[in-house]
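A note on notation is needed here, since sequence and fold are reported together in a single record. The reader may check this reading against the record printed directly beneath this paragraph.
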Amino acid sequence: MDEPKGARNRSFELFHSILWTQRKAAEEWVRVRGLTHEQAMVIGYLEQRPGAIQRDIAEMSRTTAANISLMLKVLERRGLVERRIEAGNERSKRVYATPAGIELIAGLNAALAEVDEVIFAPLTDAEKGTLEALLNKINARLPQPTQP
């Protein structure tokens, strides 16, 4: 059966336009620094969770371990992350953001907060609180990446 014209889920369209705006701002910010959005997210994750394992990074970024392995090789060559062998076990490596990596993404959160200010400017503080509460309620029921 054909879907009626205009029957696309309106909430998807609304979320998509907000996320697109946020993503484009983030991509522009990291592009100037020679990073992809995903690379900046991984460095930020490692800044918050030093010593994460590749599987944790893959789950957080909702991608495959193979993709993360390739990304980490690129970031390692640039000196932005490092992998360290854990307790002499060659198979157990922990990943750390280097000071150069952390310095490179410094300011990203502030830049994204500025974008959010513009996006959500039409809402009152009470409306922002309500929106956040509703989104938290929805998020609580979604599959979440495993945290270390």
